[in-house]
Design goal:
The longest helix has 23 residues, at 14-36. The N and C termini lie far apart (48 Å). Helices cover 36% and strands 23% of the residues. With 286 residues, the chain is an alpha/beta fold. The protein has an eight-stranded mixed sheet with strand order 5-4-3-9-10-13-11-12, sandwiched between helices. A three-stranded mixed sheet has the order 6-8-7.
C-alpha cells in the first residue's frame, strides 16, 4: 500500500480508505496463515453469508485474494437482485463454488442450488466448498449437445480456464487434457428431478450458446432468468456469435441486457458492448 495515497484517501474518502485497510489486513492475515499452515485452505466468510475455503497456490486464490468480493461484481449484484428464498439456482460452470455459495445463502433452506463443473481438479474444490456450506447437489460433467465422453482441455494458466475447444485461453504447447463425461443440461436436470429453475448462471468458457441451443425445454417451459458469459475470446472456438445469441433470444422470447450495479436495473446492450472481451449478459423471459 502507498502510505501517502492512503492518508490522502483517509482525508477525502473515508469509506474507500476503510475498504483499502481491510484488504491490506486480509492480505497480511493470509500470508501469516499460509506461512503457518502452507497446505491448509483459508476459511473466508462472505458478506452474503457462507464461507469459502481458499486453496493455497490455486489459480482462483492467486488471482482474487484478498479482494474476492470483486470477482465479477455484476454477477454478484445480479444474483442478489434476482434470487429469492425458495428459488432454485442452477450454476453451470460453478468453478470453485463462489456463486453457488452466494446463491445458497440467498435461496435459503427452502431453496435449492445445483452446481455443475467439468474439470476434475476444480470439481474437488467445488465439492469441498459446497460441503462446508451444506449445499448440493453437484454434478461432475461437461455440458454438451449430446451425451458421451469428451476431451476437456486445460491451459497452463490453470484449471478454471478449461474448455471443450482449443482457442481462447487454450493455446500453446503446455495443454493438459482430461476425458470427462459429457451430458446435456436437460438430462442432468431430469436425473436430479429438477423441474423448475428460477435463475441460471452459465460460464463454461465458450460453450454457453451450444448449451442454450440444446436446452429448449428449459427455455420454453422453465423460463429462468439467465446470467450468461459472452466473450469474443472464447466464443469463436465454438463457432458462436452475438448474432446467433440474438436470434436464439428472439426465438424463445427473451430480452438481452446487462445488469447495472449503480441503478439496480437491467440495461440494453449497446453496440459497443458486443466487442467486449468478456461480458456477463442477463437474459430475461418476456
Amino acid at each position: 500500500m502507498n502510505i501517502f495515497r492512503f492518508l490522502r484517501k483517509c482525508l477525502t474518502d473515508r469509506s474507500a480508505a476503510l475498504k483499502s485497510a481491510k484488504l491490506v489486513c486480509r492480505l497480511y492475515y493470509g500470508q501469516m496463515y499460509w506461512s503457518c499452515f502452507p497446505l491448509s485452505p483459508l476459511k473466508h466468510r462472505l458478506p452474503t453469508g457462507g464461507v469459502m475455503l481458499l486453496e493455497p497456490g490455486h489459480i482462483f486464490t492467486f488471482c482474487y485474494w484478498p479482494g474476492i468480493e470483486q470477482y465479477e461484481p455484476e454477477v454478484t449484484a445480479a444474483l442478489r437482485h434476482f434470487l429469492r428464498p425458495g428459488h432454485t439456482f442452477l450454476d453451470c460452470g460453478a468453478n470453485v463454488g463462489l456463486f453457488s455459495v452466494m446463491g445458497g445463502n440467498l435461496v435459503g433452506a427452502t431453496g435449492k442450488v445445483v452446481s455443475i463443473e467439468a474439470n476434475p481438479i476444480t470439481y474437488r474444490l467445488l465439492r469441498r466448498n459446497l460441503d462446508a456450506n451444506g449445499l448440493g447437489p453437484s454434478v461432475h460433467c461437461a455440458l454438451t449437445t449430446s451425451p458421451g465422453d469428451v476431451e476437456l482441455f486445460m491451459p497452463m494458466e490453470g484449471d478454471v480456464y478449461s474448455s471443450l475447444r482449443k482457442g481462447g485461453y487454450i493455446t500453446g504447447p503446455n495443454i493438459e487434457t482430461f476425458r470427462v463425461n459429457g451430458r446435456t443440461l436437460p438430462e442432468v436436470l431430469e436425473s436430479l428431478g429438477v423441474n423448475h429453475v428460477d435463475v441460471m448462471k452459465i460460464d463454461i468458457e465458450g460453450g454457453e450458446l451450444d448449451v442454450l441451443r440444446s436446452s429448449s425445454c428449459l427455455l420454453e417451459k422453465m423460463r429462468p432468468t439467465i446470467i450468461c458469459e459472452y466473450s469474443t475470446k472464447t466464443w469463436p472456438a465454438f463457432g458462436a456469435s452475438a448474432e446467433a445469441l440474438i436470434q436464439l433470444a428472439k426465438k424463445y422470447r427473451y430480452n438481452i441486457g446487462v445488469y447495472n450495479i449503480a441503478t439496480g436495473e437491467v440495461d440494453p446492450v449497446s453496440d459497443g458492448m458486443w466487442q467486449s472481451c468478456y461480458l456477463n449478459l442477463v437474459l430475461q423471459p418476456q
